[in-house]
Amino acid sequence: xxxxxxxxxxxxxxxxxxxxxxxxxxxxxxxxxxxxxxxxxxxxxxxxxxxxxxxxxxxxxxxxxxxxxxxxxxxxxxxxxxxxxxxxxxxxxxxxxxxxxxxxxxxxxxxxxxxxxxxxxxxxxxxxxxxxxxxxxxxxxxxxxxxxxxxxxxxxxxxxxxxxxxxxxxxxxxxxxxxxxxxxxxxxxxxxxxxxxxxxxxxxxxxxx
Length: 209
Description:
Strand order of the largest sheet: 3-5-4
Shape: elongated
Helix content: 40-55%
Low-confidence stretches: 10-14, 18-37, 193-201
Strand content: 5-15%
Distance between the termini: 110 Å
Largest sheet: 3 strands, antiparallel
Mean pLDDT: 76
Number of strands: 5
Structural class: mainly alpha
CATH topology of the domain at 23-108: Multidrug-efflux Transporter Regulator, Chain: A, Domain 2
Order of helices and strands: EEEHHEEHHHH
Number of helices: 6
């Protein structure tokens, strides 16, 4: 009969109340674990509080820096609030130039004591320091080469073999670059630092000629 209510013995009724059919268990409040207790954050909440993007958090999880996130019944990633401390450590480590691989190795191995942790971190920092010193030496050499080329372009006319890209003559050979860099180093030691043309009598470089 239209408008009539199902009888109490209907499977959709339990003790006189409609029975939920096909519904999944839902978290009671966003940001909390409804079952088992403990504070958890969705990926957007963790991103906002850590100052990182959600895509960065997904990358850190795939790279092994963050542990696999728990999934809510609705499919959301859930992270423990303690991940805020880990992410702060990661950001500081990256600011010091540590690679993802180095950070992952530090976080994956659990030391027995703070002294062991300090030793492992000191080893990684020493390696990064050595690598930085090597790169600085390379950059210093590159700086001298570029400075020499800059002086040459100020004082010499371009080659008469076409426009840029038509011929390699626009740029010096590797041997010429080395000689030019030596001239710049000599000039910096004995002449004016700006290569303004004031040449010392003992200087044999060509950049001030």
